[in-house]
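Worked example 4.2. Below are the chains of a multi-component assembly; read each line carefully before continuing.
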Amino acid sequence: MKFNYKTLERLIPELPAIEIVAEKITAHLFEIESCENDVLDVKILPNRYSDAACYRGLAREVSAICKLPYKEPKLVAPKATHKNKIQPAIEVPNLCRRLIACRVEGISLGSTPVWMKEALEAYGIRSINGLVDITNYVTIETGQPLHAFDADKMEGNELVARQAHEGEIVTTLDGKELKLNPSALVLSDARNALDIAGIKGGTRAEITTKIKNIVLTAGNFDGTLIYKTSKRVGITTDASIRFSHNISPALAERGILRALELIAEICGGKAGAVCDTYPKPVKPVAMTFDSKRFNALTGFTFTEADCLANLKRLGFLVVGKKVTPPVERTDITHFEDIVEEITRLQGYADLLATPPRITVTAAATQPMRRLKDSLQDMLVPLGFTEILTRSFSAEGEVALENSLTSEQAFLRPSLMEGAENAITLNLKSFEAAALFEIGSAFHKKTNHEPAEEVLCGIALASKGMKDEEAFRAVRGIVETIFTRLGVGDALFAEENKTLVIAVKGEVVGKIIRLEIGHVSAYAELSLTKLLPHVSPLPHYTPIPKYPSIVRDVSFMVAKNVKIGTIMDAAWHDVPKDLTDIRFISLYEGKGMPEGKKSATLRFIFQSNDRTLTDAEADSFLSYIMDAMKEKLLFEIR
Amino acid sequence: MDIAGLEREALDALEKTKDIAALDAWHATYLGRKSRLNVFMRSIGELPLAEKKTVAPAAQATKRLLEEAYARREKYIAGSNEAAAFDVTMPAIRPVYGRLHPLTLVERSIRTIFSSMNFSVVEGPELETEKYNFDSLNIPKNHPARDMQDTLWVSTDKGTLMRTHTSPMQVRHMEKHLPPFQIIVPGRVFRNEATDASHEINFYQFEGLMVGEGISLANLKGVITGFCERFFERAVDVRFRPSYFPFTEPSVEIDIRMENGKWLEVMGGGMVHPAVLEGVGYDPAKISGFAFGGGLDRFAMIKYGITDIRLFYGADLRFNNQF
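Applying the procedure described above to all two chains together yields the following C-alpha cells:
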C-alpha cells in the first residue's frame, strides 16, 4: 500500500525523515517496496491488513517504533440537527456484525482539499468530488470502507443487511448486471438490493452530481463471506480486500464519525442521528503475560517491565500481568502473537545467535534418498550428466485444474518427453549427449486416485554411433547399475521393440529407442518399484580356487533370429559348472550363406571343487548344444 | 669343439648388436650356413657313436638357445625403433564424465551441513493434499493467506494439489515422531505462475524443523548463522526482519549481507505456531520448535552467479556441464 509521507506527518508531527521512517518500518514492521517522492510503498503483511493498511494504523506503529507521541483522535457523534433517522436492521448477525447509518441532508459535493488529494493520489485513487473523496479517504485513513447512498432514491426509510434473494439482480456502479443467490449479502431498502455488501455499490441509489440528501453507511462483514462472494462474482475491490482480512467492527464507528466530521467541513449539510446496530459487540480478550515463557521462546532475557512497556507503546491495555490488545488488532489471538509484538518492536538485531542444546540421536537419510544419491553417483562417472526438466506435459493421466498453458495441462506421466527434448536440443551443439534425470512422474491408480512415482530416466544419443550401439550401451548401464545395487534376477524381455525389465516378476522399467531421428536409446527405471529389491551391501563369495575353461562357439542361424533368442536357448538347460555365457561377436558379411548370420558365444566352465578337464568341458558343451537344439535351429561353424 | 664357449661368445656379441644390420651380421657369423656351429653340426655324423650321443643334443640345445636369443633381440631392436616413433605429445583422449545438476550440488552441500548438525534428511510427496499443504499449517480455507501462494490444483481428484512449499513435511513428520528431533526437507515445489528470469512453475526448497524442549528463536538464528557461514565459506551477517507465515509465530524474514554490503532475503522462518503443534498432538506449553525454509534455486544462483532461474530446467548441456 502506498502512503503519502505528508499525510502521515499530519498524524505524527515529529515524524523523522522519510528514509529513516522506511528503515524503521523495515526493521520492525513491514518490507518497504519503494520510497521516493514522498511516497512510501509498504508491503502490508496479510495478518496486519486488518489494522495497519491505513494511515491511522501505520501511524500507531510508527509512533510505537520511533517512540513518538501519537494520539488516536476522540471522535464524537455530531448533534442530530434533524429528525430523519434510519435505523439499520441486520437479518444475519453472524455475517453482518455491525451496521451504522446516518442521514445527512442538504449537502453539496464540495471540493477536495489539497492534502486529501495528495493522500488519495499516492494510494492510486483519482479525485472525483468532495463527497466521494471523503468516503475514499476515510477508508485509507481509518481502514473502514464506507458507502453513501442517495437518500432520495431509497424507498421506505429502511436499510437491511440480508442474504440476497435467489436471482436478485444488482447493477454495479461499473454497469455490470449481477444475478445473486442467498450466499451473497446485500444492503437493501424496502424495494430491493442496493449493493453487494462489503464488495461493490449498485446504481439504484448511486450518488450523482445532483445529490441533496445521503445515507452514509459503515458496516462490518464476515471475512470468509466477503472472500468467497468476491471470488464467486469475480469482483475484487479495495473494500472487499479489507473485509476479507476480517477487520474489527470497532472501525465502523471510527470510520463513520470521521467521515461525518469531514462532510461537515467540506460538504456542509445537516447530520441526523447516527444509528448503530451492533447485536453482539466484540470485546478484545485479555491474556496473561508470562515473561519466563517469553524469554524461553525467544532467547531474549528481558524483564517483565521491558516487555510490558513495549506492549503499552503498541496500545495494549496493561493491568498487572493482564494485557489486552487494541480493539482493531484482530490478528492477536495467541500468547505467541504477543511474543512477536515485543520481539519485533524491540528489534531482532539484539537477538544473539545461540546454538541449540539438542539431544543427539543418530541423524538418518531415507532409503529412497540414498537410492537417488547412489544412482547419481554411479551415472556421473559413467559419463551421464544430470538434467532437471519441468513436471508437466501436454498429455498425461493426471490433469491440472488451473494450468496456465496447454503444454502444461497435465502432470508428466514419464520423464521421457523431457529427455527427448533435451537430446534434440543438445545434438544441435554436441556430437553426442548422455543424460539422466531423477524425478517424480504421475499416473492414475486403478481407483482413479492420482499417484506419484519416482523415476530415473537415462538417455543416450550420438551422431557417431551405429544402430543398436546406443541401445546396447544403455542396457549395459542398467545392468551395471543393477549389479552395483545388488538387484539380482533382472529379466529383460522384448515386447513391441521395447525391452521390458522385470525383477522378481514385477516390471521395474524399460529400454526403448527414441524416435528423434538420431541413434538413441532411453531407459526408464521406477525407483519406487526398484527400492525393495535393492541390497547394496555386498555378500562375500569365496574366490574360485580352480581354473576356468573357455569354449567359443559360432552358431550359424537364420538372419531373423535375434541374439536374445540364441542367448535364451543357450541358457535354457545348463550344467551347474557353467558359470557364464557371453556374447562375443556377430558376423553377417562375406562368406555367409544367403539369409544366414553367425553369432559367437563364449561358454565359461568352472567348478568350485576341482580342476575341470578339457574332456569334461567338451561334454558339458555338447550337453548344452543338445539342449539348444530343442529351442533353436542352428549349425555350428 | 667348445660348444659352451661358443655359446657364451655368441651371446656376448648379440648383446652388442644395436641395429638390424649388426644383427644380420651376427646371424651370418653364429647361425649362418658357414657358421662354426653349423659347420660343426654337419660334421657330427662322422664322429664315433658314443661321442655323437653326448655332443649332438648339446649342439642342438645351443642352436635353439641362440635362435631364441636372436628372435628376442630382433624384437627388442624393432621395439626400440617403435619407441622412437612413440609421440608423447599427442593430445589427450579424455574419458567422458558426467556432471551433477547444480541444484543437486547445492542440495548436497546443504544436506551435508545440516547433517553435520544432526539433522535427518526426509523427503515428502510432490502431489499433496489440501489438508497437509494448507489446513494443518494454519492456513484456513477462504482466507487471503491462501492467496500468498498461487496453487496448481489437480483436477482429477478434489483437494489434491501440487505442493506449494516443503512445509507439509513438517506436519507429516511430526505426526509420526516425538520430539526432540531436527529434520531437513529438500524437494521440488510448484507455483502457478508465468515463468520469467526469476519465477519458475517448479523450483526447489529446503525446509528445516527443530522441535524439542526449550528451543528458541535465538537458536534459529544460531543454526542459520552457522549454516550460512559454512555454505558461503565466509563470515556472514544474518538479519531477521518481521514477517508473516500462518504456520510460524513469531515469523521472520532472514536476510544475509552480501559481499557488496547489500542485504538479500534468502529464507523465511519462525517459531512453529502453537496451532500447528496442537494439531499434531504436542503441548505448546512444553514443546517448542523453529522452522525455516529457503529456495535452493536462490542459493544456487547466489553461489554460482546465475541470473536466470529457467536455466536450471532447460537441460542445456552448455549450462549443465559448467558445474
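Take a moment to check your reading of the output against the notes. Chain B has two domains: 3-85, 102-320. Chain B touches chain A through 87 residues (CB under 8 Å).
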